[in-house]
Amino acid sequence: MPASCASSTTWRARRYRASAPRASRLLEDAEADALAYLDLPYAHHRRLRTNNVQERANRELKRRSRVVQVFPSRRPLIRMLGAVFSEMDEDWEARRWFSEESIAQALASAAPAAPSRAYEGTAEEHARRIIDVVLADNPIGRRAA
Length: 145
Prior knowledge:
Blueprint: H1 3-15, H2 21-34, H3 42-49, H4 52-68, H5 74-94, H6 100-109, H7 123-136
Helix pairs in contact: 1-2, 2-7, 4-5
């Protein structure tokens, strides 16, 4: 990861330590994971840092749910969601997002040492801390999750 990105993230985390200690701690804990894509070749960055897949899924769900307008119960809604996501999964299986050459380049330039974890405890505990911070800042509360 470029040093300028790491120092920028660290600076932001320190800046908010007094006013938002939990958010600051979250920034510090997530730094290595959030900036991991920077270790890959530059040609991969755009696809890795965007959420186009999520936006496309949301557009497709809206398009299909507008036709129905009102679902009689949750089951038809869940069935439609499952069908949309199943179709998207099949599309993803058939499509190659990165060429074999670019993947080989990424593997060749990868650092041999595994990155150290930026958080303490298990991955599940780390995920729980992240979820708790998000829910604490959510005005709707746990219903949004």
